[in-house]
């Protein structure tokens, strides 16, 4: 039997990779915001670094994809401490944030317990996440950082509390079931990113393409329509929208048979290109032929728009 040729795995001191918290560590987090988003399980983008909050400066400020919901991120190139915990709570209060992320290269048991306590004792609109980056290297390879989720809300408890205590509205129940069944449909068709993903009560489902600020989403739009879109959340000057427009003939050729909607969203910092499909809510609430056809249509448009976004943005 041939002996396997294995390398030597090393865990590096993060200070060997990031010398400065402000100049190296924070910019790296912004550049890798999608990886952080995937670990946390919430789709969001970074909008600003060193954001002023009173007399303090928040390291990274972002928003949940497709919404105005604030996301705040405080990072430390070192061990968690009481100062940063206090600042994090101050920023959360000042910005009315629902997603609060604390990143540190070393995490004490006391601060892990503090974050877990905050999650147990805050309502369902507020979620605290404690994340630790680790840097690995195999032999003489390049350093490879990755994120570990050290503490987060108990989603099972939160979903249960939400359903029992707030008597979830029928529209929320419909959305959660619809997205859950759609994710199962995608997973069964070989889309690994959908496996284990939690369905929410929101009116949209986001997918990432590996580029910050750009997602391909499925939304329940007004007028009983499903919208599949390339959504550019950081496009105040409409540069990304115009970039797509320069390839309008090719894009509409890929989407043959669909009415492509070009939406610059002039009153927003975002833009989108979308296709729409009407549906009857009662017909797709359960496993019906109509819902199967709708799922197939959504899947096909997702694949096409993801390829378009990757190719032209």
In short:
This protein is 38% helix and 30% strand. With 313 residues, the protein is an alpha+beta fold.
Strand content: 25-35%
Structural class: alpha+beta
CATH architecture label name of the largest domain: 3-Layer(aba) Sandwich
The separation of the N and C termini measures 48 Å
Number of helices: 10
Summarize the main sheet: 7 strands, mixed
Broad shape: globular
Unreliable runs: 163-167
Features:
single chain; 313 residues; alpha+beta; Trna Endonuclease, Chain: A, domain 1; Yope Regulator, Chain: A; seven-stranded mixed sheet; five-stranded antiparallel sheet; 10 helices; 12 strands
Task: Outline the structure in words.
The structure is a single chain. By secondary structure, the chain is of the alpha+beta class. The protein has ten helices and twelve strands. The strands form two sheets. Strands 1, 2, 3, 4, 5, 6 and 7 form a seven-stranded mixed β-sheet that branches. It has a five-stranded antiparallel β-sheet with strand order 8-9-10-12-11. It has two domains: 9-158, Trna Endonuclease, Chain: A, domain 1, CATH 3.40.1350; 168-312, Yope Regulator, Chain: A (2-Layer Sandwich). Helix 4 (109-121) links the parallel strand 5 and strand 6. It has helices spanning 21-31, 33-40, 82-95, 109-121, 155-165, 170-188, 239-245, 248-254, 281-284, 289-312; strands spanning 9-12, 44-53, 56-64, 70-79, 99-106, 127-138, 144-151, 204-208, 214-221, 225-232, 261-263, 271-278.
